[in-house]
Design goal:
eight-stranded parallel β-sheet; binds pyridoxal-5'-phosphate; 40% helix; 9 helices; alpha/beta
Length: 222
């Protein structure tokens, strides 16, 4: 199937405009990205800063201006390059990283939208805060003037059967609801980023409103 057909099928399955579809374009070339944008995609997700920076001017040159979501781990020494381009950073998992983002955003006169990445279940992943640390981190971040905390993100462990990871999504939804209830100043809690090609329908059933889909749109990555 073509990229446009894949997007049409996924959009039909999602069946609501309350869920935003982020097309994960890592390892896919600019012509493929343009196909996705022509088919209605409004947000693209990259997991590496270098790749985002390389593609951003090429896409801009075509007159398209999608939202750029940075979904992969962000090293402190890449923040300076990432902040000018990223509309939403999904992967903030420490105070140290948040403080650096705040500093760079301040210099640019920007308010950087971010999500806190939470590591609910995946013991193999080094990234993301423990669920117990997410709300304390949110409180600290809410004091940084050049950051706007917009919600939470998680990557569920891969499983052949997405039902297996439903409890992961339930737990992140719980945390998201608690975070909303805190009514922290300086935040705008509106995005729950969870669900990928293999498990996005289960994630949506559990409250996701931002899904990150790569192979389901572009086919398997090289
Ligand atoms: C690659 C990636 C995705 C997309 O994964 P697919 O299984 O190809 O849909 C989503 N989120 C993150 C953080 C990723 O790195």
């Amino acid at each position: 199937m073509s990229i446009a057909q894949n997007i049409a099928e996924i959009t039909a399955k999602i069946a609501t405009d309350k869920v935003k579809l982020v097309a994960v374009t890592k390892n896919n070339d600019v012509p493929s990205m343009l196909e996705a944008l022509a088919a209605g995609i409004t947000a693209v997700g990259e997991n590496r800063v270098q790749e985002m920076l390389a593609k951003h001017p090429m896409i801009q040159a075509t007159g398209k201006s999608p939202e750029w979501h940075l979904i992969g781990h962000l090293q402190t020494n890449k923040v300076r390059q990432a902040v000018p381009v990223a509309d939403l950073i999904h992967s903030v998992d420490s105070e140290h990283l948040a403080v650096e983002i705040d500093k760079v955003a301040a210099k640019l006169g920007k308010r950087q939208d971010i999500l806190i990445q939470v590591n609910i279940a995946d013991e193999e992943s080094k990234f993301g805060t423990d669920s117990g640390q997410a709300l304390p981190l949110a409180k600290i971040i809410s004091q940084l003037e050049h950051i706007r905390l917009c919600g939470l993100m998680t990557i569920a462990p891969y499983s052949e059967n997405p039902e297996t990871v439903r409890p992961v999504f339930k737990e992140l939804y719980q945390l998201y609801a608690e975070l909303k209830n805190l009514n922290l100043a300086n935040t705008d809690i509106q995005w729950l980023s969870m669900g990928m090609t293999n498990d996005y329908m289960v994630a949506i059933e559990e409250g996701a409103n931002l899904v990150r889909i790569g192979t389901g749109i572009f086919g398997s990555r090289q």
